[in-house]
Specification:
The complex is a heterodimer of chains A (472) and B (447). Chain A is of the alpha+beta class. Chain A is built from ten helices and 23 strands. In chain A, a hairpin with a 2-residue loop joins β16 and β17. Chain B has 447 residues and is α+β, with helices and mostly antiparallel strands. The longest helix of chain B is centred in the N-terminal third of the chain and has 17 residues. Classes of the chains: A alpha+beta (472), B alpha+beta (447). At the A-B interface, β2, β3, α2, α3 and β7 of A face β2, β3, α2, β4 and β6 of B.
């Protein structure tokens, strides 16, 4: 195990100070340089062939200048001093500079523990090994039976080196390495086609595959597609829903995660506005957002504003304790950021984003939760979701689900969305299991920006949730 | 523009013997103004450029991209694409597009006036939009966001097989998201207006839409579950058409992933349905002269008289299917190679106005928004289940608003259950145009 070496993204401190001074020359209250060097590689197998190997490199800096309530932003792919100073001037002009004057900035380095160490940098692994991984997965998935008609699999890694310097004196950097793998199978039967998918990812290097066996993932994805061939339409209407551990963290991401982001709260666009200190969920629910949770998919050393990642308890035993904050919204309230200021790339402004969001384990035996449910739906795997934070209404898709009949998991169900109201669903959680697991890696989209997030939960039951199937 | 063509042509010229090289070079400039409570919250001015390079050698393909047009970076990117090709599986159908003699449509998608439109007027437009929304109805409690946005993008593609093409376009938009409140009830609605030039954009239309959509949902309840006829507003129809077009991608068909494979020549919908992808239509938002491989875009009829006519192809999928490209290569900027996709799908309008459709259906559900499209629609199995909001109607008249429910069917069944096609073709910022569409026997899941 070793800490990553300081990467190739080195900008001289004196240059950073001059650029920040330039950015503030027309009277800004705050200026920030966010520089990023990102390398991505991807290998895709489809239709039995290694169809594509792709690699990409992007590098640049985004500069933000804040004057009063207004943020000016400009970015450049040129990280030389003239390039940075050009962007600084554009950002300052955009922020409509007021008073003018000269400010000097003294930078002091923020040190943050890396959420985890990277053992094997993906860029050091031969492409042939990555390709071989996909071939093995393909072979195993296809061996699951003739009904498996198609398999696609993706290996991808990314390394993102960032540097943040701002006029508050913050100087921080981070080296974020992520690796992921996914496999999708199509099975064909009398009733048409069905799909099964598995995906894993973590803030680690090639050692991801010490933790996960791609052959096992391939078997799971193929089995899921095959089982769904005999699936019947999901029910239509409100029923008790049991969600399997690790399969459904996205429920909380949508039901309340977004609504606890301080920017949405500040815009009066959240049903959770003004509710700190109130009971907003069943007392069984304790919800945490934790950027320090290495090696999970949403882990970071610092956020994209140079603040240390944090472990923030959002809901404690059902009571809303805290929102998630970025620098801008925290400044308005005269408080500290919670380390949730994130952005997709140097071409974007940061905003409040989740990291790894999860519900802590309870005490119930998960099998007992099913046994105590006479009738309902058991969701083993959820897909994505979407929420309207202002009304609290949210949906999420189920990609593997079963009927529960007389306390037993029975027939598989076809894909459908579930819909609920966040505040109601939180109150309707009536049992929480003792079997916590994190779920699949996710990309959370907000205002057109995607960032990697993790989620997790134990097995739990929602007393009543609307399942959007077609069966009467 | 010529600079981009020069770079692309230069890279294509670096092809070695027995190797094909394609360079796609793109550059864009954009502005975004976001206002909140009468102040500019943020103003972003962005310029970006990049190159994506594809190499085919020995029937293997590799791809690499870089967010820079610096000469040394471009050269490294080509080397990386070459190296990547070495690890791919050989496929005799791989190969770059070659000129096919089809001339690109004469389309002018660039408006010089955008470059002359000053930033302070963009700011003023966003502020005015926010004021209009706030003044639109006393029940508007907040304007969550109001935006001005514009972009000017140029791209060039050149190959060692003789393709040289370029295109450019400008886009402007305004959008607002309103929060309406009455008592403890909160509802939201969005409105927008899009065009190629600032003068195409209507603040009034965007504001009216946002206000109307938010306020008319006030008092909405969760409906009882049951089967209903749904009347989709144009923007919902466009969402459905974009999903449908995705299932008609020739590459998915070849790979056994389309529910319409083997069905060309069969009736897949009611006989009234004519579905066309026509990027040569200058009115279409997705209009384009050339596709992502540099071939002329063309009009492709997908469904005629309810009968499936064919699929969309890029060069690779076409060769594999034993036919020509339909000029349907698309890519998500310089960071990806060419896939297959529709740009300008539209249903041929029917005879009835939206009001006539409501009257003829009698009782049903008017759908004004859907959610969870990416999580609840499985384009392989055809299962379709999305969250929805809208208005119930009875005797052809709008009745009470409803929310927190889903509508579900399958893509296959919905095409056969179409009961009316509207005459209200609406151009939307999407790869599909909209119109009012009524579909029977859809499951509504609520209480």
């Amino acid at each position: 195990m070793r800490r990553l070496a300081e990467g190739s993204l080195v900008i001289d401190e004196a240059v950073l100070q001059r650029v920040l001074a330039d950015a503030l020359r027309t009277g800004g209250d705050f200026a920030e340089i966010f520089a990023e060097d990102r390398r991505n590689s991807l290998a895709r197998l489809d239709d039995g062939r290694i169809e594509e190997l792709m690699s990409g490199r992007e590098r640049g800096a985004g500069i933000r200048v804040v004057v009063g309530e207004t943020t000016g932003f400009a970015h450049t792919a040129d990280v030389s001093e003239p390039g940075l100073r050009g962007a600084a001037e554009a950002a300052a002009a955009a922020a409509r500079g007021g008073g003018g004057g000269v400010r000097t900035v003294a930078l002091s380095r923020v040190t943050a523990a890396a959420p985890n160490a990277v053992t094997v940098l993906p860029e050091s692994v031969p492409k042939a090994s990555k390709v071989e991984l996909l071939r093995r997965a393909d072979e195993v998935a296809r061996s699951a039976g003739g009904a498996i008609r198609q398999v696609s699999a993706v290996y991808a890694d990314g390394r993102r080196q960032i540097l943040v310097a701002n006029s508050d004196g913050v100087l921080a950097s981070d080296d974020q390495v992520k690796t992921r793998f996914s496999i999708s199978c199509v099975a064909v039967g009398d009733g048409g086609m069905q799909t099964g998918r598995e995906s894993v990812g973590a803030t680690v290097g090639w050692e991801l595959f010490d933790r996960y066996d791609v052959e096992e993932l391939a078997r799971l994805a193929a089995a899921r597609a095959l089982r769904k061939l005999s699936a019947r339409p999901a029910p239509s209407g409100a029923v008790p829903v049991v969600i399997k551990s690790g399969g459904g963290g996205v429920l909380f991401h949508e039901a309340c995660g977004h609504g606890l982001e301080a920017d949405l709260v500040g815009r009066d666009a959240s049903v959770f506005r003004g509710r700190r200190g109130e009971e907003v969920a069943s007392p069984l629910v304790t919800l945490v957002d934790d950027g320090t949770m290495g090696p999970e998919w949403g882990a970071i050393g610092i956020d994209d504003e140079g603040h240390r990642a944090g472990r923030n308890v959002l809901i404690q035993d059902g009571v809303l304790t805290e929102y998630m904050w970025d620098w801008l919204r925290a400044r308005k309230e005269g408080r500290d950021s919670t380390g949730n200021g994130r952005r997709q790339s140097y071409q974007h402004l940061p905003m409040v984003r989740m990291t790894n969001t999860y519900v802590l384990a309870g005490t119930e035996d998960p099998d007992e939760i099913v046994r105590q449910t006479p009738h309902g739906v058991y969701v083993a795997q959820l897909g994505g979701g979407q929420v309207n934070t202002a009304t609290g209404d949210f949906v999420f898709g189920m990609t593997e689900a079963y009927l529960i009949t007389d306390g037993h998991i029975t027939e598989p169900l076809r894909d459908a969305n579930l819909i609920g109201s966040g505040p109601e669903v939180l109150r309707n959680i009536d049992v929480v299991g003792n079997d916590f697991n994190m779920g699949s890696p996710g990309t959370c989209g907000k205002d057109g920006q995607g960032v990697p997030v993790g989620d997790g939960q134990p097995t739990l039951r929602v007393r009543s949730l609307t399942v959007g199937g077609t069966a009467a | 523009m010529t600079e981009l063509v020069d770079i692309a042509t230069r890279v294509a010229g670096w092809a070695r013997d027995g190797e094909q090289v394609e360079a796609y070079v793109a550059r864009g400039k954009s502005t975004e103004v976001k206002v909140f409570e009468g102040d500019v919250e943020s103003l972003s001015a962005a310029e970006s450029a990049g190159v994506g390079i594809r190499v085919v050698t020995g029937s293997r393909q590799g791809f690499a991209y870089a967010g820079s047009l610096d000469a040394d970076v471009v050269a490294e990117t080509l080397a990386e694409a070459r190296d990547n090709a070495g690890f791919a599986t050989p496929d005799e159908h791989l190969g770059l597009a070659a000129p096919d003699g089809v001339p690109p449509a004469e389309l002018d998608l660039w408006r010089e006036e955008l470059a002359l439109f000053p930033t302070d007027q963009k700011v003023e437009a966003a502020l005015e939009l926010e004021r209009l929304v706030r003044a639109g109805d006393p029940r508007i409690r907040q304007v969550e966001s109001a935006y001005w946005g514009d972009s000017a993008s140029e791209s060039a593609v050149a190959t060692s097989t003789g393709i040289v093409g370029s295109s450019r376009r400008t886009t402007c938009y305004v959008s607002a998201y309103a929060i309406a409140g009455e008592g403890a009830d909160t509802q939201t609605g969005g409105g927008y207006s899009v065009g190629r030039a600032p003068s195409d954009v209507s603040l009034g239309v965007a504001a009216h839409d946002a206000v109307d959509r938010a306020t008319r949902l006030l008092g909405a309840r969760k409906p009882a579950s049951g089967r209903v006829t749904v009347v989709l507003e144009p923007r919902i129809t466009a969402t459905l058409l974009a999903i449908l077009a995705g299932t008609l991608d020739g590459e998915s068909v070849l790979k056994g992933r389309s529910l319409f494979a083997q069905r060309v020549g069969e009736a897949v919908s009611v006989p009234d349905l004519v579905l066309v992808d026509d990027p040569t239509d200058p009115e279409a938002y997705g209009a384009a002269r050339i596709d992502a491989e540099g071939l002329a875009c063309r009009r492709n009829v997908l469904v005629d008289g309810g009968v499936l006519q064919g699929f969309l192809y890029n060069t690779y999928a076409g060769r594999r299917a034993g036919r020509a490209s339909t000029g349907s290569a698309v890519r998500a900027g310089f960071k990806s190679g060419p896939g297959v996709g529709a740009r300008a799908v539209a249903v041929q309008p029917g005879p009835a106005s939206p009001a006539e459709i409501l009257a003829s259906v009698g009782d049903g559900l008017l759908v004004q928004s859907v959610s969870g499209v990416h999580s609840g629609v499985n384009p392989v199995s055809g299962d379709f289940s999305v969250g929805a909001e809208g208005m119930l109607f009875r005797g052809g008249e709008l009745a009470e608003p409803v929310r927190e429910f889903t509508i579900a069917s399958t893509i296959q069944r919905m095409l056969l259950d179409i009961v009316a096609i509207g005459n209200d073709l609406e151009r939307l910022p999407s790869s599909a145009a909209g119109l009012t569409l009524a579909i029977a026997d859809v499951s509504m899941s609520g209480v």
